[in-house]
Structure formats: C-alpha cells, structure tokens
Amino acid sequence: QVQLVESGGGVVQPGRSLRLSCAASGFTFGVYGLHWVRQAPGKGLEWVTLISYDGSKKYYADSVKGRFTISRDNYKNTLYLQMNSLRAEDTALYYCARGTGGYDYHMDVWGKGTTVTVSS
Amino acid sequence: QSALTQPRSVSGSPGQSVTISCTGTINDVGGYNYVSWYQQHPGKAPKLIIYDVSKRPSGVPDRFSGSKSVNTASLTISGLQAEDEGDYYCCSYAGSKTVAFGGGTKLTVL
Prior knowledge:
The complex is a heterodimer. Helix content of chain A is 0%, strand content 53%. Chain A has strands at 3-7, 10-12, 18-25, 33-39, 45-51, 58-60, 68-73, 78-83, 92-100, 106-110, 114-118. In chain A, strands 2, 4, 5, 6, 9, 10 and 11 form a seven-stranded mixed sheet that branches. A four-stranded antiparallel sheet of chain A has the order 1-3-8-7, with no helix packed on it. The N and C termini of chain A lie far apart (39 Å). Chain B starts with 8 loop residues before the first strand and ends with a strand.
C-alpha cells in the first residue's frame, strides 16, 4: 500500500544538526513533489519545505530558510531533511507528505511522523 | 508567510451541521483555487478531506463540503457524527510554491 515512513528524530542540543529520512513505498516516488510539515507539541500544522519531483526545485518557509535543506534520492525512494543550527522552537513532530495537484500544494499521503526535540 | 485564520473551536450536536471558516488574503486563499482541508484525530497524522476548494478525495463522505468566497474558505460538515470530532486545518497555496496552514479548529460533537 501507499506509505511514507519517517525516521531520524531524536533529542539534540541547540545549535546542533539532525537529518530526517522519509522512506516511500507503494507508488511511483519520482513523479511526486514532497513536503515536510511539522507540528509543535499542542500546536497546529506548519509547512516547512517542498521539493519538486526531480529534486531540481526547493522551497522553504521563512522560519527555516538557510538552516534546513530538503533533498531526495529517487533511486532509494527516500526524502531527506537536513536540519542545522537547531533551535528550541524547532521542537516538533515532523511529517513527510506527498504533494499533488496544482503546484503540488495539497498533501494526499502522510507519514506518521518523527519527533525532534531540541533541548540542552 | 502568514498563517490563515480559523476559529479555535466549534461544536455541534449529532445530526446538525457546522461550518469552519478560514480567512486569508488575496495572496493565498483569495488568489488561487488551491484550498485544502485536513482532519486530524488525536495522535494521528492529518488526513486530506477537501482539495481544490471543494473536491473530495475518494472515500471521504459527501457530508464534507468546501466552498470559497473572496478571501475566506469554508468547510461544512453536515449530519455530524461522533467520529467527526477532532482538529481541522485549512491550507492554501500562497504563491512562489509555498503553502500556508490555518491555526486549526477543534470540533466538539456534543
């Protein structure tokens, strides 16, 4: 079945780095844009970043621009999020989601998320 | 990139209808017919229930409907059921390949 499975979350000190992964299965990975969306504890959803189907175009929320980098490996059917210079406010459950429709904006498949905690 | 504005909570009794609003600007909701809605139950991932303002993915009951007027999108749930209780988020394309979410609305079925 169509599935996204995130991994790589954990506890990290402020200023350090972490890389998240999202393994896809059950669909043709290389034709879809992919998003990362996060949800801080008890808070709402926040869009983080989008990558085009071929990895050539990447877009970021202002809150992470210059610190986070999205990438993908279409041979391994895997999406990544490299997070540098982490801050306490980056603490959240991070979801990967498949984008579809115009501008890939709506997200029709979601993973269950991986938790990132930034704390000293 | 500003969040879209949703009411923090709404409630209704089983069988009734409720409407959740989502207000943005000409730069997001008002500028594109690319509004989607997501349902989230506690401890679960969001689920797409409306896209392109008013389209329903396969498997979503027709009790869920969406609309838009100028800069405000709306989600209406008719014939409320207990299982509809949860959080609802609107989402809009916001130009330059960015996306904006609303702050979320907690729906309570009385």
